[in-house]
Specification:
Length: 331
């Protein structure tokens, strides 16, 4: 079975072809970072317009690069939420009209579930159950995943997500959007910092997170000092470490408490090199899995794969109604 995956929940137009026998055939992502960077965040209307412009040419490119014909596609999977309503509508309308014209099924995929299962695309060793840390621009959620429809949410952010504070602090530091990779880049120039920022909620018994206090702490400091390259590096270094310390500490504690060996870390922030290196050092009692770096940030490959996992379920919806949901069914 060949599944076409379509992602358009925010500022990436992602398309992919997944073969249930041979694995991922190919994927293509157009990022809108250049469009949004001058605003310091995503402008929903501009995002929708760009998805409309890119969906058809990207599909043509993906098909011709991989020598697949439209007629070879057996199923279409598209992101139906959570995300920005306008961008979701563009992908849903495209997916459903294409499916209708090809007389095949179009099924809805939850973006968060797609992130959570994305390491399975490449990590054949990864088996359920696992502890999942999903860290993206919109979410920070720690979950016990028993199977692909049985989840127990252990904790989530009470305010900003980890990716969001990376983006906001980067903006105050005068760095480009998205802020995560920018902060990481400048932090990697040094190996220690003169600042020690708080590690919010690291010692609390629960599995919730809170990053907005850290953001305020760091932005108040930024407003007091005269920024130069060296101070920016100093701030970025301990800010990045603070977030990583909290994420790793809570995730490992959950694995210990629930006696689960496998840990999965996904979403845009899982592209962070230092987070990956620090997790490498923690491997031993636990097995920690990340998605292929290309599947950390938003992409169509994870949607195609999740679509295939969900395709056999009775609940796999195939109506022609265009009904994307800006919130998630999953949490
Ligand atoms: O999963 P994603 O692409 O979109 C959402 O579903 O939200 O995540 C985007 C987030 C942004 O906040 C971005 O700054 C962050 O992921 N991000 C990173 C890195 N690459 C992307 N954060 C830290 N380090 C990175 N290398
Ligand atoms: Zn995402």
């Amino acid at each position: 079975m060949i599944v076409l995956g379509i992602e358009s929940s925010c500022d990436e137009t992602g398309l992919a072809l997944f073969d249930s026998k041979d694995g991922m055939i190919g994927h293509i992502v157009n990022s809108q970072h250049d469009i949004h960077s001058k605003y310091g965040g995503v402008v929903p209307e501009l995002a929708s317009r760009d998805h409309v412009l890119k969906l058809v040419p990207l599909l043509d490119q993906l098909l011709s690069q991989n020598k697949i014909l439209l007629e070879n596609i057996n199923l279409i999977a598209f992101t139906n939420g959570p995300g920005l309503l306008g961008p979701l509508l563009t992908g849903a309308s495209f997916a459903k009209s294409l499916a209708w014209s090809l007389k095949i099924k179009a099924i809805e995929v939850d973006h968060l579930e797609a992130h959570i299962f994305s390491p399975m695309i490449t990590e054949k060793e990864l088996k359920l159950p696992f502890i999942s840390l999903l860290v993206s621009g919109g979410h920070t959620i720690l979950t016990l995943v028993k199977d692909n429809s049985n989840y127990k949410v252990l904790g989530k952010t009470l305010d900003d997500s980890a990716g969001e504070v990376f983006d906001k602090v980067a903006r105050h530091l005068g760095l480009a959007y998205p802020g995560g990779p920018e902060i990481s880049k400048v932090a990697s120039n040094i190996s220690s910092s003169s600042y020690i920022f708080p590690r919010p909620m690291i010692k609390t018994d629960c599995y919730n997170f809170s990053f907005s206090g850290l953001k305020t702490h760091v932005t108040q400091l930024i407003n007091k000092v005269e920024l130069n390259d060296s101070i920016i590096e100093d701030i970025a270094y301990d800010f990045e470490n603070s977030i990583i310390d909290v994420l790793i500490s809570k995730t490992l504690r959950a694995a210990r408490e629930y006696n689960i060996k496998n840990i999965v870390i996904t979403g845009g922030v899982s592209a962070n090199k230092k987070l990956r290196m620090r997790c490498d050092a923690e491997k031993g009692k636990n097995k920690i899995f990340f998605p292929n770096i290309a599947y950390s940030t938003d992409n169509g490959a994870m949607i195609a794969y999740m679509g295939w996992l969900k395709s056999s379920e009775k609940s796999a919806n195939n109506t022609l109604e265009i009904n994307p949901n800006p919130s998630s069914r999953f949490i």
